[in-house]
Design brief:
Elements lengths: L48 E7 L4 E2 L7 E2 L18 E4 L3 E6 L11 E6 L9 E9 L5 E9 L13 E6 L6 E7 L13 E5 L6 E7 L3 E6 L2 E7 L15 E9 L14 E13 L16 E2 L3 E4 L9 E4 L4 E8 L6 E10 L6 E6 L6 E5 L5 E8 L6 E8 L5 E10 L1
């Protein structure tokens, strides 16, 4: 929808809206944490969300430049009036305000000025959960949006071939917002998409807009209710699924061109107020806290067993006895040329025994960090995947005789 008019609107659903959610509450309820206290929120069970980016917009003045940059003015309908000024993008102590008006600015001879920011070059994500709590004013010609574009803009070719994820768009005085996908398979020559859904929203208050993006689908939510799912097809090419690359976030208040049409100046100023933005990733590691019914997806060595004693947190831990043995897991779906940290906690039963937390098969030299304490000790290794490597094998290894325990492992993208 960002490049030209979107001409298709699908079935309207009515639903109850909700107000603000607590920080750990989200639109799709993750499983409860079974373990707490590990470094970097790591002692979480599978399918638990870990926050990797957030902005609560509780300051005053300009936005946080370590997270955002102005979206630049260009020639597309959505960005032709963007203005890199704190008059059009600012924090008011409780919200980020994105504004549009018809003020006259000396030396900037355009009929309107509007605000937009993006995380390009500062933060991007591939797969995860994105949530934005926001409200906006209706008006003829208004076009607020919360959306995502690929950090590599021509990975699969120019727009729309490399993809676009429109988490929320609104135009004019409609009582619906639009969730839309763009790519080479669903976007036509005029910019309209067949992968779109119109959804009712609370027109007078904040709404929670979000997606859950996995390797197989993108789910769109409004106020914690699933509204639309775009699924990867079997045997899909990049034309239908270019969504395997990192995307960055864009927040903007636009209007007056393209889809919404001309502005009725009496409706100005337009604004979108954003309460917060939060982005989460699922744990990269399967069964990190060892609380599942079996040891899988870990692979155990000959004298490595899952036990219900000596757990650091929760009720289970790993025990390695006898001679040399190991616990390993090959993690797939990692990003090339990307830095990760694998870590966890271990202890030995007797002095002189050693355990090693380490990584191998990631495109670099195997590395490990020793544990030799008789009480639980944290250890970790930080590594960067190779230029074409998308997997790594992490391990908890006992190289000599004795007994060691391990618990609360994690793998985090830096």
């Amino acid at each position: 929808m960002k490049k030209t008019n979107l001409m298709f609107i699908s079935l309207l659903l009515l639903f109850a809206c909700s107000k603000a959610q607590p920080e750990i509450e989200s639109m799709a309820k993750a499983q409860s944490l079974k373990k707490l206290g590990a470094v970097n929120n790591a002692a979480a069970t599978p399918l638990t969300w870990r926050m990797v980016f957030s902005d609560e917009f509780n300051s005053s003045g300009s936005f946080d430049a370590t997270k955002w940059m102005y979206a630049p003015r260009q020639t597309s309908a959505w960005n032709k009036y963007l203005t890199s000024s704190p008059d059009y993008v600012y924090q008011d102590g409780a919200n980020l305000v994105l504004k549009m008006d018809d003020a006259v600015i000396a030396g900037d001879n355009v009929p309107y000025h509007s605000g937009g920011i993006q995380t390009s070059t500062k933060f991007s994500v591939r797969y995860g959960k994105v949530e934005v709590r926001a409200k906006f004013k209706q008006g003829q010609g208004s076009w607020p949006a919360i959306w995502m574009m690929p950090e590599l803009p021509v990975a699969y070719g120019g727009w729309p071939n490399s993809g676009e994820i429109d988490i929320m768009e609104h135009v004019n005085k409609e009582n619906v917002i639009h969730n839309t996908i763009h790519n080479g398979a669903v976007t036509n020559a005029s910019g309209g998409s067949t992968a779109t859904r119109a959804t009712a929203y609370n027109t007078t208050d904040y709404n929670l807009y979000g997606i859950i993006w996995s390797p197989s689908s993108i789910e769109f939510y409004v106020n914690n209710v699933l509204q639309y799912t775009y699924a990867k097809q079997a045997g899909a090419t990049s034309a239908q699924w270019p969504f395997d690359k990192p995307f960055y976030l864009i927040l903007n208040q636009s209007g007056g061109a393209g889809w919404p049409g001309p502005i009725t100046n009496a409706d100005l100023p337009f604004d979108m107020q954003v309460d917060w933005v939060r982005v989460y990733k699922q744990e990269e590691l399967g069964n990190p806290g060892l609380e599942s019914a079996t040891i899988a997806p870990w692979v155990a060595g000959p004298t490595t067993t899952l036990v219900t004693n000596n757990a650091r947190t929760g009720t289970k831990a790993i025990c390695e006895q006898g001679g040399t043995t190991t616990l390993e897991q090959t993690v797939t779906g990692l990003l090339p040329n990307t830095t990760y940290t694998f870590g966890g906690y271990g202890k030995v039963i007797a002095a002189g025994t050693t355990a090693i937390i380490g990584v191998k098969n990631y495109g670099g030299t195997s590395m490990g960090s020793q544990i030799n304490s008789t009480s639980y000790q944290h250890a970790s290794v930080t590594f960067t995947t190779g230029a074409s490597n998308t997997s790594a094998t992490v391990y908890y290894y006992k190289p000599n005789s004795g007994t060691v325990y391990g618990d609360d492992f994690y793998l985090n993208k830096q």
